[in-house]
Amino acid sequence: MSLSTPLYSAQKYLFQLGGPILLTMGTIGSMLNLMVFRKSSLRKSPCAICFVAGNIIDILYLFISFIPTFLQSGYDINLGEGNIAYCRSFYYIGLILSSLGPSYLILASIDRTLVTSRNAGIRKRSKRRLAIICIISLAFFWMIFHIHALIYMEIVQYGVNDFVCSFQPGAYTAFITYYSLFIIGIIPPLLMIIFGLWTIKNIRQVRHATHLFRISADGTAVVGRSYNPRSKDQQLIRILLMEIIVYILARFPSTIFLIYQQITQYQTKSIEQTMIEQFIANITYFIGFIDSSISFYTNICVSITFRVELKGILLENRLFRCCRPH
To answer: Are 65 and 99 in contact (CB under 8 A)?
Structure first.
């Protein structure tokens, strides 16, 4: 039996079963995330604004990029087959969304680094207005940066009824490969780790300074008092650190696979090896959507404030339905 048959079946069942599950979990979770982060107690925080923007991107990413993918891979439904306008628009929007998600997560990381600083002047730079400006500016930047997809994407015909939307072979394919490796796979996780560790370092310094202040009554001389992050800020930091971990874990397989492809790009490969690599590429692509689908569920696990706000929203809606006149 050819190796292509079991690999194709496994891939098809994964997208058939996992696709609707991820889409449902992600849609419901992102909507609930938006309801929580838009509560009056949280929405004034620049970090929460970044989370709101990120969840909007997650919903768009699932509906615009993920639905066509799992329909094609799981159900052999190819939306816009042979349509060059759809082909270019699909990849253009997909590239923008795949860049905006981690960009907003990095922006939230920078904000948490600022707000946990012991320097009052640095903490003042964490502003809601500045966060909104950065969010809008990043959106325009990626929209302009990815215009190349509207020019260099093309439809390649491999058979009588087999049309594939693909990158122009040659220099553009190499550019997209290195772009995916560095701009999506390496640089965002690296920046998230840097600012995440920086935030943790700031928190430890604050706790150490607070401890010294508390024992000063026993004779320890302390000059001034360090800033102690509020409970809300601490909860947002926990949410952020978990989102960073999930993002890195979800993107790690595709990053490793891209590195492998670059190392082996000049090797002669058998048909069987090519099929295995294509199968792995599709699996890592599927895994890359997980971080857009489970943030709500990780937020529930790590944040007491998030659970309290969610409970209040659910109770308010339930009370409204009960009190609504029939």
So the answer is: no
Domain that holds residue 138: 4-320
Q: Is residue 147 assigned to a domain?
A: yes
The structure's pTM equals 0.87
- For residue 222, pLDDT over 50 is answered with no
- The CATH number of residue 214's host domain is 1.20.1070.10
- Residue 72 covered by a domain: yes
| The pair of three-digit structure tokens given for residue 192, joined into one six-digit string | 């998230």
User: Could you report the per-residue pLDDT of 30-70, keeping only the tens digit for each?
Assistant: 999 999 998 887 888 999 999 999 999 999 999 999 999 88
pLDDT tens for 13-24 read 999 999 999 999
Distance CA 230, CA 112 (A): 12
**Both structure tokens of 195:** 């600012």
Encode pLDDT of 106-128 as tens digits: 999 999 999 998 888 888 899 99
CA distance 6 to 212: 64
State how far the alpha carbon of 21 is from the alpha carbons of 178, 242, 312, in Å. 31, 21, 27
